[in-house]
């Protein structure tokens, strides 16, 4: 942790060293193949080409570019591309968790993203994002190394404070730590995040109440004690009462900046990419990020400045001093006094320095970074800003908001000075912004309209009130949370009366009948307008009119089937609304079918009849035929003939007679209708003719056939109306003979 200063009158001394053992955990990777996801996952993990970041990388300070190449062995543009890929992986994992997927963690290897899940059933959802999937947890850190708290206004600055009352000689104890991330209290006042163990008395567990002072530095402290001789230094602020938590898996606390000379800014001290001045090569913070294994992370701290490494384990509980802290394990060098400092991935805030295997060393020359969770070597633990169950935003989010740099919006429409309709929509982009950001448009300095930024950085904010014709002014501002705001873009536009192109519907037409429950609606209208399809109170889809004035709406669900209805198409454009109604549309229900027997088939007498009918329809079966038989058979024929009719939920029906049909020629007719429906749309009928040739059931010894009397006998077998319901229904079938034999 820290070194001890000699006791002398008027001087200060450090607190003692804390020592703890590292936790030993384990995990096994298991491979899995998964089917296509059953539901659409509204997130993908895009790849980012390093060439797209060359311009941004060139804007980094030279010393910071050198540090990236030195510590990470990659080009600065590749580092920025990998940081965006890590952010995309973090976002995807969050969306999957929100949709009930058991995400155990995520990892990145260059541009390859892997998401770990708890079971095979979750694999398909991950694959739908484009990421690789592993069933089982990520490997945990396995080591016997001891972890010590890395004690210690931009993030990474150093601060010092008294931790005891002066004794009889006037000597008192001092401690120092590093600033994590600047932010705001609920009233918008400057407040920063740091490590929880920095503000807690290790012996009593009580929070310190002494003032906090800024440490003026020209470079990292390393082993020097010069800072102590300058104590107390400039006033900075005070510990926020009750905010410091050390143990029970947490290590976070808050410090109010009460000196008006200091203002929270969304930056982290870059230390010249290593051992330079703290303000040399500062890094701008654009938002939080979850820990992803393999992400390239850099830490800032007052003792060792700027060092970089790789995240080995995204979430793990580790003893830090006498307490367990849950955080991410990474292999950047961290020394005593770096505690509370910033850990970033690119421009994104990952967490604050908590502890490391520094063993009291005062430089990073002998730091041997662990290369994987199961290897020996030095490692550090960071307390996460947002990752997992135990994190700073969950613990302190009600009392602190991260300060974020928000890029100035670029308004693409309307152009400055352009003419618009009475309800213009403001569109544009905000570099680096996501759905966590908002855009506000103030018209004429009075009315404010707001909208969310999309994850691709685009926005669209509509004016929802009709503006009077004439010139208007606008102010567009992007924001994050309640207090991080961009610069304001100002401009003007002229509102005019809308002369929108007339809405027309080309297809379908009034009274049209179709068997397609989702027919395409096509027509023409005002380019850029939104057209919406409704039936009654239900919306079935929308589209944007193309530049050529054409539009097509594909219904998102089945339209009403079996009854006539009116469909309405509405066009909206800058306050102008037009509607067109297609009257009397009809969607026919699928026709009843007979699958067995087939038309013209020859079957045995114990035939089973089956087919399909529209669910909810009434089914009627009728059979008639001519039976050739002896008078003896006619006399013994049954007057009643029973059977069982079963109809499934999907409309599949089966009729099984209790007794076999006699040899002869038959015609089976099936008809269906929907009660209360339009017969033109719901009624259908089909027939099949078939022959029953069951053989000589009586077994004539001479093998002679029964004589053909030449008379025609017709059996009328009518199945009563059967309402489709769950399960089936047994229906008695009565038969009556017509005619007689000679």
Describe the structure.
The chain crosses the membrane at residues 714-733. The chain has 742 residues and is mainly β. The protein has 5 domains: 50-135, no CATH class; 147-402, Trypsin-like serine proteases (Thrombin, subunit H); 410-495, Immunoglobulins (Immunoglobulin-like), CATH 2.60.40.10; 504-587, Immunoglobulin-like (Sandwich); 593-738, Immunoglobulin-like (Sandwich). A hairpin with a 4-residue loop joins strand 45 and strand 46. The radius of gyration is 39 Å and the shape is elongated.
Concise account of the structure shown:
The chain is mainly β and 742 residues long. It is 9% helix and 39% strand.
Output the number of helix runs: 8
**CATH architectural designation of the largest domain:** Beta Barrel
Q: Report mean pLDDT, rounded to a whole number.
A: 83
CATH superfamily of the largest domain: Trypsin-like serine proteases
Domain count: the total is 5
Please name the CATH topology of the largest domain: Thrombin, subunit H
Number of strands: 50
Extract low-pLDDT stretches.
Answer: 1-39, 630-641, 697-742
Q: Determine the fraction of residues in helical runs and give it as a percent range.
A: under 10%
Distance between the termini: 118 Å
Beta-strand portion reads: 35-45%
Let me know the largest β-sheet.
10 strands, mixed
- Which radius of gyration do the C-alpha atoms yield? 39 Å
Keywords: Cell wall, Membrane, Peptidoglycan-anchor, Secreted, Signal, Transmembrane, Transmembrane helix
Signal peptide: 1-37
Domain Gram-positive cocci surface proteins LPxTG: 704-738
Protein name: LPXTG-motif cell wall anchor domain-containing protein
